Amino acid sequence: MFIAWAVVVGLVAAWTFTPAAPPQQQQIPEANRGKAFGSNERYLVEGRVRRREETLKTLEQPWSGRCAGETRKAFISGLSHYYYFRQTEAQHYPQYFGQLGAEYIAKQWATTDDQRIDRLTQEAYVKGYFKAADFDGVAGKMVAAVVKAERVTGNACAG
How many CB atoms within 10 Å of residue 138? Predict the structure, then answer.
């Protein structure tokens, strides 16, 4: 009985005073080492171009329709779709391709069109056409980052 008690006390002491193991780093798949992107990147680049075009069309719609009905749904959905893919790629390229992938995808999402989309998104936010809470999940994370330094001064969709 004494031996069992000593073993239990010893195990508890070991668990208590042993430092935690460092977290394992994300391992880049062997096939992706030394690469910034995969073999299907050409299609993803084309998709980014189309996504930007669609998002700019969304942001060029009349301001008056952004507060209600189907036009509002299309406005929020268009922005959500764009920021969802942008955030997803920003998260996954470093996981799959390491630092090379992180640098590559940051450049891919830093075009003048992307900057324009961010600027127009900030403008709509400041004027009160949406709240960051209108977006959920992955898209919400990116939208929050884009508008974090902005202050809402309008109330376009209030009431």
Answer: 17
